[in-house]
């Protein structure tokens, strides 16, 4: 799917890139052996319309600069980092002297340092990430998008009388990165979204809320406010009259928007930072069968237009496609330069970098490959089961794999979705759960940077009445 | 105005003047808004950590900005800037002003001095001090955790602090400023025994000076606690599944209150009638043994504030008294629209965020039972003493919180430790099952961060030992 290939290309310097380059130069003159500066600049607009009236309207922007310095010589660096929102001469001087001072007290670490110079590069070509049109609408029309989404939800059924509103959001981000090894890069990304959050009420007073949304890099690819509102209404209404079910073991079917969280758990298990510490149950498992043979999970930061795409990672390495799990076998961890060195492997171009702190690990577009049956067929094969549409809480232990989360959804009887279920938990162990993926549907869709088709996992315990 | 301008951080450091504040408020109300406020914020933060016994990195950051809000009825316009020049401030004020649509109608009546408490030490020198003493704290935690047991194979310890200056000026005459310290020490460990691995974590702090960590709450205290949990978990058995009697230990398990009732009692949800607690004031929502308060005035606590982020003084608010729902937590907007008192709970993550009703320190008052009697009364159940995070759906009322240290209770005795399990319940019902309340109220160590609508703020929780006759435990064992 990738149309972008890494090639070295000169990038014209903007004002921000010049500021970053100057900060790197000044850090070197102040005593740093290596230095890296990042600048992030962003604008945001958001509006929330509730019961037809504008409730909030927010519009603003901010920027900041972060500096990372290395002292010493290759093989035993000390490192520290600073950040500021103050771009004045005094602010930048403080940024630089602060980083140098701070690095004096940190430890020499043989694994610290910038990536190898030959590894740094960036994707060229149009990655389809930036559209000015997200800010192209006048405020009145933005409000109108939010109003229409909410109105479509509330007009769908008389039981939908309350609302957490409809919203329209737009944002742009600009990221600049320069380091002392000669890397200089920058890119812009845009984002817009519409959502609806209706509340349904029964005559007995029981309330349920749900939501639906559409997000894209350009207004042209947003779903219509009416379709978003209608879907939000459908999802909210089906939760009414929910009840508890008895404690039991049945197949669990994860709806795609919930199955995403299992893919996020896979990201945590493959995260090099956890792997080298032994804090992931996948540490030491490379080449082993860690999931059912039907499971293939891929991270790809190069797919044009998607939410996890960028021309380079948080350390100036080109993004790439990495197969994490192939037919159930663990093939690769997701690594930045530091964790790669700790594990004696090359970085996979998965460094993530905010303004402050050292680079962490971030996924590009992370997804499970789709299966060959429809979601309807997958459900039809389940005699008795639980179709999960919401998970609550943080009950996942990545050291042991123990998994226990609050859940809500619909009960499956003879392959059909029946009554709504709430106030139960689903529990198991991720190591076993991933080996018990018994069916994968063909409904993979990228609604965010992490995506999954509908999944069926057997052997989990529902705790209820 | 009669405040000492020359002493105020934003006047000194950013060249702000009272004349500019008045011009911004005037501009903010120029399109007919009926309330406006300015929130100036400047933060300096330090973070240092030890990992594999190395100080792998250290960070410092500074940020400053101003958020300008205009209210017109129940509509809110908001804009912020990280540039505190007159031009950018006035532009932000004009942007926020557009929420209203009419001629200017407000006259500024001048500012009044607010009475102010001093709940926390402010020795800025501490926060400006070099990182050496902070480094020593994390090194001590690393050594103590490793010394606890040879099966502790990984240790990460971190120290984070920030010093936040805020100044709030509003068209209702509010003029308030505060300097808010916040510090926290954490220790996370991994234990290994053969093929078994486990984790443990501990931490604490508050609005305190560095010397706080030289007392009981030393690096060694947190390190040993993290190591103890990890070693214990090496031999944990599967947690039970289903409804059973549950005893919650004192302190951090108070996160139950935060999720089960606290969020549902935030006034914004009740004004919109989207909370499962809407319309229940005066009704029984818990057993008669339960009294729950939110108290922002406790000295040095992580959730405490001299003034909230709208400049209103914080206070103690009774939420549930002897099982009866008494009140909501409000900010200025909710108080005005609902005709109720402002409880000083208007909070925001930063100058980039619109304030809303939030908790401070939320806890249940002590009862009369001894913790031993409570445990003895349980035939078969779960005793949970440490938790990870929790979450609530305020509309359906369903909440969860995840136990990271819990034990089986069999015939009144604590037996085997169990693996991590999530507990789930229904907010307006769960506390009706509280049948015993201990005499051992404790507050947490100062680690809580609460998220709402994408905004994080530091909070505290607390509780005595309590017994719930029924709660759902999400394990795997029958």
Structural class by SSE content of chain B: alpha+beta
Q: What is the CATH architecture descriptor of the largest domain in chain A?
A: 2-Layer Sandwich
Largest sheet of chain B: 7 strands, mixed
Overall 3D form of chain B: globular
Largest sheet of chain A: 8 strands, mixed
Output the CATH topology of the largest domain in chain A: PmbA/TldD fold
Instruction: Tell me the number of structural domains of chain B.
Output: 2
Q: Which stretches of chain B are poorly predicted, pLDDT < 50 over at least 5 residues?
A: none
Number of strands of chain A: 22
The secondary-structure class of chain A comes to: alpha+beta
What is the strand arrangement across the widest sheet of chain A?
A: 8-22-18-17-16-9-21-19
- What's the gyration radius of chain B in Å? 24 Å
Proportion of residues in extended strands of chain B: 35-45%
Can you tell me the CATH class of the largest domain in chain A? Alpha Beta
Distance from N terminus to C terminus of chain A (CA atoms, Å) equals 48 Å
What is the number of independent domains of chain A?
Answer: 2
Radius of gyration of chain A: 24 Å
Mean pLDDT reading of chain A: 95
Descriptors:
heterodimer; A: 465 residues; alpha+beta; PmbA/TldD fold; seven-stranded antiparallel sheet; 9 helices; B: 478 residues; 2 domains; globular
Overview of the molecule:
The complex is a heterodimer of chains A (465) and B (478). Chain A is 21% helix and 35% strand. By secondary structure, chain A is of the alpha+beta class. Chain A has 2 domains: 15-237, PmbA/TldD superfamily (PmbA/TldD fold, 2-Layer Sandwich), CATH 3.30.2290.10; 248-463, no CATH class. An 8-stranded mixed beta sheet of chain A has the order 8-22-18-17-16-9-21-19. In chain A, β17 and β18 (416-429) form a beta hairpin. In chain A, α3 packs parallel to α4 (225-237). Chain A is globular, with a radius of gyration of 24 Å. Chain A starts with 14 loop residues before the first helix and ends with a strand. In chain B, α2 (18-28) packs parallel to α3 and α5 (132-148) packs parallel to α6. In chain B, the strands form 4 sheets. In chain B, strands 1, 2, 3, 4, 5, 6 and 7 form a 7-stranded mixed beta sheet that branches. In chain B, strands 9, 10, 11, 14, 20, 21 and 22 form a 7-stranded mixed beta sheet that branches. In chain B, strands 8-15-16-18-23 form a 5-stranded mixed β-barrel. Chain B has 2 domains: 5-233, PmbA/TldD superfamily (PmbA/TldD fold, 2-Layer Sandwich); 241-474, no CATH class. Helix content of chain B is 20%, strand content 40%. The longest helix of chain B is centred in the N-terminal third of the chain and has 17 residues, at 132-148. The model of chain B has no long low-confidence stretch (mean pLDDT 94). Chain B is globular and about 70 Å long. Chain B has 478 residues and is an alpha+beta fold. In chain B, β6 (174-193) and β7 form a beta hairpin. Classes of the chains: A alpha+beta (465), B alpha+beta (478). At the A-B interface, β2, β3, α2, β4 and β6 of A face β2, β3, β5, β7 and β8 of B.
């Amino acid at each position: 799917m990738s149309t972008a290939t890494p090639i070295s290309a000169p990038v014209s310097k903007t004002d921000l890139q010049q500021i970053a380059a100057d900060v790197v130069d000044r850090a070197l003159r102040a005593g740093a052996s290596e230095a890296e500066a990042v600048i992030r600049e962003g604008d945001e607009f958001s509006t929330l319309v509730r019961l037809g009236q504008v409730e909030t309207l927010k519009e603003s922007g901010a920027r900041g600069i972060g500096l990372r310095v290395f002292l010493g010589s290759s093989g035993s660096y000390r490192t520290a980092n600073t950040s500021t929102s103050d771009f004045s001469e005094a602010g930048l001087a403080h940024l630089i002297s602060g980083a140098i001072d701070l690095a004096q007290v940190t430890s020499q670490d043989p694994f610290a340092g910038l990536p190898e110079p030959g590894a740094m590069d960036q994707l060229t070509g149009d990655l389809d990430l930036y559209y000015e049109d997200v800010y192209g609408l006048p405020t009145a029309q933005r409000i109108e998008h939010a109003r229409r989404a909410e109105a479509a939800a509330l007009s769908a059924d008389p039981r939908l009388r309350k609302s957490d509103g409809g919203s329209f959001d737009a944002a742009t981000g600009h990221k600049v990165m320069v380091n002392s090894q000669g890397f200089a890069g920058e890119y812009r990304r845009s984002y817009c979204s519409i959502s609806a959050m209706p509340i349904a009420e029964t005559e007995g007073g029981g309330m349920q809320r749900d939501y639906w949304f559409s997000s894209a890099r350009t207004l042209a690819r947003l779903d219509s406010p009416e379709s978003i509102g209608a879907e939000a209404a459908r999802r909210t209404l089906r939760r009414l009259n929910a009840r508890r079910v008895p404690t039991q073991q049945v197949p669990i079917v994860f709806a795609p928007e919930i199955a995403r969280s299992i893919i996020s758990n896979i990201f945590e298990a493959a995260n090099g930072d956890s792997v080298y510490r032994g804090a992931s149950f996948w540490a030491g498992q490379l080449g082993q069968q860690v999931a059912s043979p039907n499971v293939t999970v891929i991270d790809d930061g190069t797919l044009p237009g998607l939410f996890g795409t960028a021309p380079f990672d948080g350390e100036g390495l080109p993004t790439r496609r990495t197969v994490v799990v192939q037919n159930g076998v663990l093939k690769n961890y997701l690594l930045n330069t530091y964790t790669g060195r700790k594990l004696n492997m090359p970085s996979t171009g998965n460094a993530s970098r905010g303004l402050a702190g050292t680079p962490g690990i971030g996924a590009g577009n992370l997804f499970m490959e789709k299966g060959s049956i429809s979601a309807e067929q997958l459900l039809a094969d389940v005699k008795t089961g639980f179709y999960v549409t919401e998970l609550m809480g943080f009950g996942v232990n990545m050291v042991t794999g123990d998994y226990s989360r609050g859940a809500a959804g619909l009960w499956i009887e003879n392959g059909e979705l029946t009554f709504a279920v709430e106030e139960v938990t689903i529990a198991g162990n991720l190591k076993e759960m991933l080996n018990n993926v018994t069916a994968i549907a063909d409904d993979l869709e990228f609604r965010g940077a992490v995506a999954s088709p509908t999944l069926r996992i057997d052997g989990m315990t529902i705790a209820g009445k | 105005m009669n405040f000492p301008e020359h002493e105020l951080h934003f006047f000194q450091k950013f060249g702000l003047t009272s004349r500019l504040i008045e011009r911004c408020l005037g501009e903010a109300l120029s399109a007919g808004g009926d309330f406006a406020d300015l929130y100036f914020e400047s933060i300096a933060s330090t973070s240092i950590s030890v990992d594999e016994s190395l100080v792998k990195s250290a960070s410092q950051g500074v940020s400053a900005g101003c958020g300008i809000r205009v209210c017109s009825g129940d509509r809110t316009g908001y804009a912020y800037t990280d540039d505190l020049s007159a031009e950018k401030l006035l532009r932000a004020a004009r942007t926020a002003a557009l929420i209203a649509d009419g001629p200017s109608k407000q006259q500024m009546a001048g500012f009044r001095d607010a009475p102010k408490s001093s709940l926390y030490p402010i020795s800025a020198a501490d926060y400006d001090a070099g990182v050496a003493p902070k480094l020593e704290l994390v090194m001590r935690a690393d050594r103590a955790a490793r010394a606890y047991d040879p099966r502790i194979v990984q240790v990460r310890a971190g120290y984070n602090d920030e010093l936040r200056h805020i100044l709030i000026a509003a068209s209702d005459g509010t003029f308030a400023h505060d300097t808010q310290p916040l510090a926290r020490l954490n220790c996370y460990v991994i234990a290994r025994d053969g093929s078994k691995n486990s984790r443990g974590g501990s931490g604490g702090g508050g609005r305190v000076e560095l010397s706080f960590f030289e007392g009981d709450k030393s690096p060694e205290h947190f390190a040993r606690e993290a190591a103890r949990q990890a070693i214990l978990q090496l031999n944990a058995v599967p947690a039970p599944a289903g409804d059973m009697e549950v005893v919650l230990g004192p302190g951090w398990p108070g996160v139950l209150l935060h999720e089960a009732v606290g969020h549902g009692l935030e006034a914004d949800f009740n004004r919109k009638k989207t909370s499962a607690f809407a319309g229940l004031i005066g009704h029984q929502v818990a057993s008669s043994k339960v009294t729950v308060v939110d108290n922002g005035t406790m000295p040095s606590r992580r959730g405490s504030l001299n003034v909230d982020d709208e400049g209103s003084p914080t206070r103690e608010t009774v939420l549930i008294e002897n099982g009866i729902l008494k009140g909501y937590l409000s900010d200025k907007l909710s108080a005005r629209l609902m005709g109720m008192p402002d409880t000083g709970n208007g909070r925001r993550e930063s100058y980039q965020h619109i304030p809303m009703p939030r908790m401070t320190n939320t806890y249940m008052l002590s009862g009369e039972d001894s913790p031993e009697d409570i445990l003895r009364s349980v035939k078969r159940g779960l005793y949970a003493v440490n938790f990870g995070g929790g979450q609530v759906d305020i509309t359906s009322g369903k909440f969860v919180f995840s136990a990271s240290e819990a034990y089986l209770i069999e015939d009144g005795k604590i037996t085997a430790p169990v693996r991590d399990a999530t507990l789930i319940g229904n907010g307006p019902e769960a506390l009706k099952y509280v049948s015993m309340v201990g005499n051992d109220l404790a507050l947490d160590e100062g680690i809580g961060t609460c998220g709402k609508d994408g905004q994080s703020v530091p909070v505290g929780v607390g509780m005595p030992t309590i017994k719930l006759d029924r709660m759902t435990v999400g394990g795997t064992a029958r």
